[in-house]
Amino acid sequence: MPIDVIMPQMGESVAEGTILKWLVHEGDRVEKEQPIVEISTDKIDTEVPASVTGVIKKILYPEGKTVPVQTVIAHIEAVEQTEGADISEEKLKVAKAVEKAKVTEEIEKAEERGRRYSPLVRKLAQEYAINLEEVKGTGEGGRVTKRDVMDYMASKAVTPAPSRTEGETKVFERETLIPFNPKRKITADRMVQSKRTAAHVTTVFEIDMTSIERYRELNKNALKREEIHLTYLPFITLATVRALKEHPLLNSSWTDEGIVQKNYYNIGIAVSLEDGLIVPVVHDADKKDLLQLAQEIQDLAQRSRTKRLKPEDVQGGTFTITNYGINGSLFGTPVIVLPQAAILGVGSVLKRPVVIADAIAIRSMMYLSLSFDHRIMDGANADMFLRRVKNILEGWEVSPYKKEISYEKTKSSPPA
What is the mean pLDDT of the segment spanning 386-394? Predict the structure, then answer.
């Protein structure tokens, strides 16, 4: 029995994925764990490996096709099932030709389910602005075929030249149309869905990062020996997790039946790429110390940029941090990653004059912005959480590097 290759679930909110490129052809022999297809979602671009050693029997969807997660996209005949069989090149070519015809037919049938049409028919309709509801289908079960479309065009004297439809983007001289890549399109859909669904409110706190800055300066040589580039982000992640444990509403999600509180802490870290954003996840962040967080964040960022993330790296996030300060932004109003309840935005750290005890001092200052879902919590909940993050960061103990790190010396205080 053939083994199914499925579109994997790569993130809690991911509903579909796009097939970017098939790395194999029908009839090809593949080894277990060999990458066979590149796929893309709003969270990740990755390769799907073969689950068994065998022969690619069927490829059910072409490149560029977007399908729901868990959809079977190909079949592999496992070697165990064909052991002893002669899979010579000649036989593979014959099998490939037969299967190709079958696959083409199956693809068209799949497209028709849910009142859809074959890619060719849809392409013709788009090119010549044809309303397919007006075209009588003569194929099996009333399916609209290419011949039906051509006959319709002849009867209506549709000219071969494509006609513009209302609302079509017009590109004028000195303009360039940049087509959406799959990640940009899906990200756009998710962000619009989030803004339409969650009741977004943003609150901003100013944080004195001078103690963190001094700690980094004091320990940078020791950390360099550990091959750790210690940015501000691991400190902020550690403080965030501690504050989430004390304010669990921030680590929850909205459902029609009630608010689901997550008693685990998987922190998504937004990483900017050339073709869009991706949000790899630090799982069980509450069980890791500062250096472990620094190493994992560094590793996830590097693998994000080299497209070496695994599906599990972007799954199960409960709270997200986005660091727009890396490009110099002071503060922003980030969009919540549904179904999460909130997202923390990190601004740039800059030295500024501030008033301390009626005196002006130069301090390393940063803004943290928290966008939260007002359906789940009120402003007071959000402010208490953010105040706790502020207290932890500002109370950081400036001490020589050590494995066991004390990261707080102050207790949270009530909101003003």
Answer: 97
